[in-house]
Amino acid sequence: MFRPFAIVLMTMFSIVCASAQDDRLDELSFDEEPLPEETVAYSSIGIGPVFSLYTPDVTDLNSRAANMQLDELSSPFLLAGAEFFTAVGFVPNVRLGFSWLSGSVSSVKDLVSIGGGVKKSLDYAISTRSIHIDYAIVPTAKLAIVPGVGATWGYSTITSSTISGSYDWASDSTASSQVFLEQSSLCVLPRLSIEYAVTPFLNLRAQASYTVPVSTSDWSANTYGTALNVPSSISLQGLSAQIGVFVGLFN
Hints:
The chain has 251 residues and is mainly beta. The protein has helices at residues 2-27, 59-67; strands at 44-56, 77-87, 94-113, 116-135, 137-140, 143-164, 177-199, 202-216, 220-221, 225-226, 238-250.
């Protein structure tokens, strides 16, 4: 009599345990949970040519050109050069770079005067060297928005020439003359770049920047003399629009 009763108890216990396990299984979720997205740190190192349309104030230069009976100098004009940059590994998304640019604009004309022809010219040239620090914001893959600032050391030169006839090296007397003016400047260069990595090895850039002089030297004349009354508007200050193509490693 005890055995049938024990069998009944064991059967009831098994049913209760199975029911409890079913309830626990109902609480479990078998839905697939998305894996966390893997984030990749920004890194880049590249070098390549850059081309800038530079827009300085040339109003006073054009007044000088008019006095020399020359056509106006055009603005903007092209600066060409190169830039190198590399990410700073221990500071996320920060990179350092170095760039150099140069370019010039000229006005040249042959004039007829009593006693023969005269060729006159006015040339305005810019040369800069800059150290940059930038911060890359990466909204999507391959695209980077890169604000930054640079410290720029640059030179402005103005060369006015008058040539009558031929120049004779062996003669001390000549109807030709030339005045060479030069000024050096220390500038701040805020800039904003939009960059797109076409491949992990090729990067394209479009950039806007503005050069602000913070310290300038006196103008010199023919290297050793002092130039007086040069208008303050003739400076490195100006807006630039730049494009660049870089090769390297871009993540």
